[in-house]
Write a structure and sequence with these properties.
The strands form 6 sheets. Strands 7-6-8-9-10-11-12 form a 7-stranded mixed β-sheet, with helices on both faces. Strands 13, 14, 16, 17 and 18 form a 5-stranded antiparallel β-sheet that branches. It is globular. With 422 residues, the protein is of the alpha/beta class. The chain is 24% helix and 28% strand. A hairpin with a 5-residue loop joins strand 1 and strand 2. It folds into 3 domains: 55 residues, no CATH class; 204 residues, ANL, N-terminal domain (Rossmann fold, 3-Layer(aba) Sandwich), CATH 3.40.50; 90 residues, 2-Layer Sandwich (GMP Synthetase, Chain A, domain 3). Helix 3 crosses helix 4. The chain contains 11 helices and 23 strands.
């Protein structure tokens, strides 16, 4: 954990095995003034051991004046389509997201949130920790995500609410099924990103828990869109606006688009209160993202007359092929309907004639086998001709972020044979 002081100095806490590394950094950095060790039992380091210092502290609470708009953390975007940017998050931001999510999920003091994703990420902070803290619920935190142990940990810790991404959901489904995992106390698991209808059904049936898809970004703080906890849900959608959110879809000129027409998702908000304060040392990106009280997400969606939003794709993830705009996620979903496919990622690669060609990277299920021609024919049966991939490469894994999201900007850099290929 990095902590910035009022004077701009930095304290870093870490484990003993990294001591030499950060000692060297502190010798070369005028900003890094303090080093603290966590999980340290070595008496040699008592003067910098966090546990020891806490034990020896006198308990007096220093008076530190705080304001709601003060920045308390810098959370970095996931970096799936471009270089990560630091989002400035304030005290008010955290209080707002705690209130908004706790009300949307009906958190109570009896609930226990299960956090298996890194706490430097907005998911664990925004959607699990702050709502629990807001209502006085408890939190169970694991060392790391384990697909084989997820439900066993949930049972042992008596967790009632969880949060995952699509990749961890697929990883859990890929494990050998234990009938005992069905006997858990989880009442709902919120998740984000694309999961097929078959995967949704299998997950809910196997583990006796309701899944709720939502939509949010590090910049939006609270998720502006979520499937309702009670009543009709549609997990093929990214949900409806939560009680505190105002969401619109707009075209390139900023005009609101009609029902069932794609447009960019924009979220109304107050910087430093209901949306991020801005990007760290990046005023240009802040001005481009927050305009006239609206946060421009860069994501495209459609909306029905019932106010359900359906994700189309990130603007940076749209493939432009011979004058047609193609959503990579639509092609990915078609590929993943094939019984041999575990996961797919689709990108546009330069094409001298058609602007971009469609390239698919595919991970097969363990023990399964198929060919490029078979999958392309499979896509022809499900997609318009101009959306069918030009080529498919089979790989062992994708470049991913710390929470399992696919880094597509890195995929585009790889040529055939350079990407963890079989």
């Amino acid at each position: 954990m990095w902590v910035y002081t009022k004077k701009g100095n930095i304290a870093k806490s870490f484990e003993e095995e990294y001591l030499d590394k950060f000692t060297d950094i502190s010798n070369r950095s005028s900003k890094l003034k303090n080093i603290l060790l966590t999980r340290c039992t070595n008496k040699q380091y008592e003067n910098i051991c966090l546990d020891y210092l806490i034990e020896e502290a006198d308990g007096e609470i220093p008076h530190i004046p705080l304001k709601g708009e003060d920045v308390v953390s810098i959370l970095y975007t996931s970096g799936t389509t471009s270089k990560p940017k630091g989002c400035l998050i304030t005290h008010s931001n955290y209080l707002f997201t705690g209130e908004a999510v706790s009300k949307s999920l009906c958190f109570t003091p009896e609930d226990r949130a299960l956090i298996v994703l890194p706490l430097f990420h907005g998911n664990g902070q925004y959607y699990m920790f702050m709502p629990a803290l807001t209502v006085g619920a408890s939190v169970a935190i694991t060392e790391r995500f384990s697909a084989s142990q997820y439900f066993k940990q949930a049972k042992r810790m008596r967790a009632t609410i969880g949060s995952l991404f699509a990749a961890p959901i697929r990883m859990i489904l890929n494990q050998s099924y234990d009938e005992g995992d069905k006997e858990n106390l989880l009442r709902t698991i919120i998740y984000a990103q694309s999961v097929t209808p078959d995967q949704l059904y299998e997950f809910e049936q196997k583990f006796n828990v309701s899944l709720l898809q939502l939509y949010g970004m590090t910049e939006t703080v609270a998720p502006p869109l979520m499937n309702p906890l009670y009543g009709k849900k549609d997990n093929m959608s990214i949900g409806k606006p939560i009680i505190s959110a105002e969401v619109k879809l707009v075209d390139d000129s900023g005009a609101e688009v009609p029902v069932n027409k794609p447009g960019q998702i924009i979220v109304k908000g107050i910087p430093g209160r209901t949306i991020m304060k801005g990007y760290f040392k990046n005023e240009k990106a802040t001005r481009e993202t927050i305009r006239n009280g609206w946060l421009y997400t860069g994501d495209n969606a459609t909306r029905t007359d019932k106010d359900y939003f359906y994700f189309v794709d990130r603007q940076k993830d749209m493939i432009k092929r011979a004058g047609e705009n193609i959503a990579a996620i639509e092609v990915e979903n078609a590929i993943m309907q094939h019984p041999d496919v575990y996961e797919a990622a689709v990108v546009g690669i330069p094409d001298s004639i058609r602007d971009e060609a469609i390239k698919a990277y595919v991970i097969l299920k363990e023990g399964r086998g198929t060919t490029e021609d078979v999958l392309i024919e499979h896509c022809r049966e499900l997609l318009a001709a101009f959306k069918v991939p030009d080529s498919i490469e089979f790989v062992n894994d994708f470049p991913r972020t710390s929470v399992g999201k696919i880094q597509k900007h890195l995929l585009k850099k790889f040529s055939k044979g350079n990407l963890l290929s079989n």
